[in-house]
Every structure is written in structure tokens, then in C-alpha cells.
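Researcher: We're teaching a course module on how sequence relates to structure. For the next exercise, students receive a sequence and then see the predicted structure as C-alpha cells, so they can try to spot secondary structure elements on their own. Here is the exercise chain.
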Amino acid sequence: MGYPDSDGCQSSSTNRYPVATTQSGYPMRRIVVMNPKGGCGKSSIATNLAGYCSKFRQQVVLADLDPQQSASEWLALRPETLPTIEGVSANPLTLDLPKQRGIMLIDTPAAIADEALGSYLKLAHTILVPVLPSAIDIRAANHFIELLLEQRRVLKERVKVAVIANRIKQRTHGFTALQKYLRMLDIPYLTALRDSQNYIRAADNGLSIFELKARDAGNDWREWRPVIDWLGSRDSLPGAKI
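Model: And here is the predicted structure for the students to work with:
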């Protein structure tokens, strides 16, 4: 399986890029990775998507709104020989939103207060919610997703939302329970990403999973294909003019 135009992770989108820009190309497409529950893999999702998009010579901005700065630390490790990803550290009130064509991945902190949710929604065209396979994580996700779906911008489809099962182990009670919950939601359940050491190995070297060799990470690439396909489709873009 080759990279990046492999049968494992190449989008079926007719857009020039696998991850679609906004309809006119302007302003920059903003994908927010969000879940107030800590440790669910938000930074991993954001950095791996940033690495994927950069392979197609899209302008990519990685905005780190998390005080832990995990995404920024990953970017600092990134080899200079790889395509450039611009890094930005800010908070939702001070983040400068680029107006040029491209993709902005926004990594958010844990413990976002309910009343602060609106500030993050104003940043987003698309929200990805990673959820871990545990009872505690499912309960936390349920509260957050219920709150999210009540927001005006989501109800009016100015923001599109989807969920990802993260760090799963097949044939476990936790994953079975998580699958059952996610399939009941009224938003897309895109994929289940396995608990793979490849993510740790990539992150330790400032790489995305897609910058590892196919023989090592091919199975992981295939699990991302539904995410790439959805982000490349109009279904993932706001229904109302931005």
C-alpha cells in the first residue's frame, strides 16, 4: 500500500485535496478536535490529521489551545525534511483565524466548562469527538455530546460533528459497549482506531502515523480511511454559509 494515495487512506472526495476546504476555499477550513474528558487522544487525532494534510501540499496550521501543549511539543520534534506545518498557541478568544486557503487543526484542552463551549464552537466548521472504550469515558462523552447537539450553531448545521472510537481493543467488553453507544447517536460514527504502538512511535519522532512505513502502519492507515472520506465530503462541511 503506497502513501499517500493508497487504497487505505486516500479520500474518494472529488475535491482537489483529500480533506476538503470550505466551499469557496476561503476562509481556512477549521477542524476542532474536542472532548472535555482528558486523556482521550485529542492531540493524537489533531497531529495525525495535520501530518496527513501536509503531505498534499495544503497549507496546514496546527493550533494548540491546550495548556499542556502536547501538539506544540510534537511539532517541535518534527523533522525539517517533512512538509511544513505552521504552529500556533493561543486560547479560543485570542486565536487569529486565517483567511487564506488551507486546513487548520485545533487541539483543545480538557475540562472545558459548559458555559465556555460557545467560544470553541465559533472556531469550528467541523468537530471531531474522540471517545475511549470505558464506562467513565462513555458517560462523559454522553454529557458533552448532548450539550453539543443543543447548541444553535450545531442545530443550524453551521458546525458539523462526528465521533471516533479511539485506542480500542477488539473483542473486549469496553469496545462492545462503546460501539453500541456510538451507533445510537444521531451524528456520524466514523471509525474505531486501535490501541497501536505505532501512534506512540510516530509521536515520539514528530511524525504522523502516515509517515511511518506501510509495512508497519498499513493497518492503522486503513482505519483512518472513513475519517478522510468524511472530511473530504460535503457532509462534513457546514450547511449554512460561513
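Model: If you want an answer key for the exercise: Residues 74 and 221 are 19 Å apart (CA to CA). Residues 29-230 form a domain with the Rossmann fold fold (CATH 3.40.50.300).
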